[in-house]
């Protein structure tokens, strides 16, 4: 017998919202549920003093894919914010990502040739050809100074593990440039939705039934009866009741402060690279939208271990956890009426544009085959 909804979508983050939007467009009836008291997952912003505060960590939209850029722009206009984080290391400020400005500030090198020679000299002195962990990867890519000033202490704080025990791929995200270019991302398109991310989510879910404060696991049998198919964007191990074991994450604690000044740090993101600071960075949210408010809101990010009572942010993709995930993935393929997708379901660190791309691809396959 046909059930009340075509799709029950669990989680109203970007994956669930894009899927729901596409399903509705194809004439399907969807119900979106979310256990939090708001929609939008981790892109949700809270308005404090007229400033959009990125409640679950800074989100900066960037992509090289024109189709994805056009897709989001049909819902909301984006400003021209460019992420150019600063770093405070050993008492001095430096530009990030690693570029000619950073090299000048660090060594006084004025040309790409001088900077390259400095890095090559340090890499050669280190001499490892086949890096096996994050420390070896960094030292063989950028040498000792950059590793000591910007990578080692930040990374060990962020992950709560020695850099020698972390996989190398974590820092492949960090670009190295021999131009005076402080743009963190290499992508063609970048910006923040004008008016905040909530607008984007509101538009995606416009006309779709959404219920917040509703946890699928509180009454699975009831929810399973509601729809022909389920789109699940929660934690994959939780879906299977952790029966094979618990997947590990790194979590963050955010400490917000409203300050009676219009400009605290002059930049949206300042990384605190030294181990002596217990937080990794301070976000000053108004700068994402060039805010002119008289006050400001800053957030200190404290990395911590994940436990079931805090939020799961960064998957720990080491060999042990990855192997466990693969076992869960096998189980998920046997669930014929459930589509698993998103960061928590795929146990993978995704950027926003990647989540949108997979949600569009999967919804297309699903809706065309239906
Ligand atoms: N990282 C670092 N120093 C920095 C910034 C980042 O060593 O100043 C490393 C760190 O290991 C981190 C990874 O690069 O986990 C990715 O950092 P990014 O800020 O790009 O990622 P986010 O945490 O914002 O997703």
Automatic annotation (TrEMBL):
<dbReference type="InterPro" id="IPR015899">
    <property type="entry name" value="UDP-GalPyranose_mutase_C"/>
</dbReference>
<comment type="similarity">
    <text>Belongs to the UDP-galactopyranose/dTDP-fucopyranose mutase family.</text>
</comment>
<protein>
    <submittedName>
        <fullName>UDP-galactopyranose mutase</fullName>
        <ecNumber>5.4.99.9</ecNumber>
    </submittedName>
</protein>
<feature type="domain" description="UDP-galactopyranose mutase C-terminal">
    <location>
        <begin position="150"/>
        <end position="349"/>
    </location>
</feature>
<dbReference type="Pfam" id="PF13450">
    <property type="entry name" value="NAD_binding_8"/>
</dbReference>
<keyword id="KW-0285">Flavoprotein</keyword>
<keyword id="KW-0274">FAD</keyword>
<dbReference type="InterPro" id="IPR004379">
    <property type="entry name" value="UDP-GALP_mutase"/>
</dbReference>
<keyword id="KW-0413">Isomerase</keyword>
<dbReference type="GO" id="GO:0008767">
    <property type="term" value="F:UDP-galactopyranose mutase activity"/>
</dbReference>
<dbReference type="Pfam" id="PF03275">
    <property type="entry name" value="GLF"/>
</dbReference>
